[in-house]
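step 3/5: co-fold with zinc ion
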Amino acid sequence: MEINKLTVGPVATNVYIARKDNEVIIVDPGAEFARIDALIKPSDHILGILLTHGHFDHIGAVNELVNKYDIPIFAPEKEERLIVNPKLSFYDGIPIANINYINDGFTLGNFNIKMYETPGHTFGSVTYEIDDVLFTGDTLLNLNVGRQDLPTGSEEDMKKSIEFFKTFTTDYKIRAGHGNDSTLFYQFERNPYFK
Ligand SMILES: [Zn+2]
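step 4/5: write tokens
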């Protein structure tokens, strides 16, 4: 799997374009549709959009991508309440229609996607595992975790999610919603929230 990363929008959100041959999945297209679109090749087959959670800075370019490519959107079922409520998501764009709410992993083309509930930043936040990569959204960041003071966030939930990450025995690549790339074992060693 090849991954292109773009950092977009007012709060520097990471968008990931994951590719296997000409099959593509877009994770958290938060803003700047044109920059994301510029990385799509004419021969690409975009299988869908994966959302780690519903905050405005992770979903802002979804409608434009769907309008151009007519692709499915997948988001955690427990995040529906947040995504559809501007007071919780801070998203003030045109409501996003036809989201496929999921509560488990699934397969898209050649992508075997596992989904783990990792609440704390928001109630419905998830981490997606694809091959050797964890897309952690705003749950696990390099040397940090996502803030827990926004609506539906919870310090207790975040502690449980951190304990969940500690159960992994493979040094996954971490591709987070903000900040630098890292690895899971590096977080075990250096992230103060894992002490
Ligand atoms: Zn967020």
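step 5/5: annotate
The chain has a mean pLDDT of 98.
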